[in-house]
Design a protein that fits this description.
Layout lengths: L9 E3 L6 E3 L10 H11 L1 H16 L1 H15 L1
Antiparallel strand pairs: 1-2
Helix pairs in contact: 2-3
Length: 76
Amino acid sequence: MFPSVPQPRHLPCPECGESVALELRELHACEEERWATYQLFQLRDEIAELDGQVARYLDSPRGRFELWDAARRRLG
């Protein structure tokens, strides 16, 4: 019916994102810097949201109290 779909020769490592040849997957070891960069890339949306979450918390009654208390402790 359909011609066979060619199989990829390389796939990304799920931990660091590096393209690894299928026959070398067992030998692959993630480089620490590449792994960290890839993990941060995976969390980019959550990291981008963090500033907004902190600002919303600090605008809440509890957050305003925490700011007031921190300033009081720093000065006292």
